[in-house]
């Protein structure tokens, strides 16, 4: 689906079924973009595993659009160059 492949600015959430966590991580990382992602789960072990495996500038767990001005923010792949916020933004 196009909504799962393009970088869409929203608020937009795409929900999809999957058979294994590894399959979902591979699918997420196969995108040419990597600005932000979100994980909705009750299992924090799964959330930690997936969040460390996804190549995205920010990974939200059970929330959306939560930022800390002291933490650097930026994308991966075709979703950005460099970092905003934090000390990294001054470089």
Walkthrough of the structure:
The chain is α+β, with helices and mostly antiparallel strands. It is built from three helices and four strands; from the N terminus they run ααββαββ. The strands form two sheets. Strands 1-4 form a two-stranded antiparallel ribbon. α3 links the parallel β2 and β3. The longest helix has 10 residues, at 44-53. The radius of gyration is 13 Å and the shape is globular. The chain starts with a helix and ends in a 14-residue tail after the last strand. The model has no long low-confidence stretch (mean pLDDT 81).
What's the short version?
25% of the residues lie in helices and 13% in strands.
Q: On the 0-100 scale, what is the average pLDDT?
A: 81
Q: Beta-sheet strand percentage?
A: 5-15%
Overall shape: it is: globular
Q: Largest beta sheet, briefly?
A: 2 strands, antiparallel
Number of strands: 4
SSE run: HHEEHEE
Number of helices: 3
Which parts are unreliable, with pLDDT below 50 for 5 consecutive residues or more? none
Can you list the strand order of the major beta sheet? 1-4
Q: What value does the Rg take, in angstroms?
A: 13 Å
Q: Helix proportion of residues, in percent? A: 25-40%
Q: Structural class of the helix and strand makeup?
A: alpha+beta
Tell me the distance between the termini: 38 Å
GO molecular function, one term: oxidoreductase activity, acting on the aldehyde or oxo group of donors, NAD or NADP as acceptor
Domain Aldehyde dehydrogenase: 1-90
InterPro entries: Ald_DH/histidinol_DH, Ald_DH_C, Ald_DH_N, Aldehyde_DH_dom
Protein name: Aldehyde dehydrogenase 1-like
């Amino acid at each position: 689906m196009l909504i799962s492949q393009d970088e869409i600015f929203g608020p937009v959430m795409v929900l999809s079924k999957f058979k294994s966590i590894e399959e979902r991580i591979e699918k997420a990382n196969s995108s040419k973009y990597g600005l932000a992602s979100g994980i909705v789960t009750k299992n924090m072990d799964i959330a930690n595993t997936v969040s460390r495996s996804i190549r995205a500038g920010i990974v939200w767990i059970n929330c959306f659009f939560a930022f800390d001005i002291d933490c650097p923010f930026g994308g991966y792949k075709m979703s950005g160059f460099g970092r905003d916020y934090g000390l990294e933004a001054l470089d």
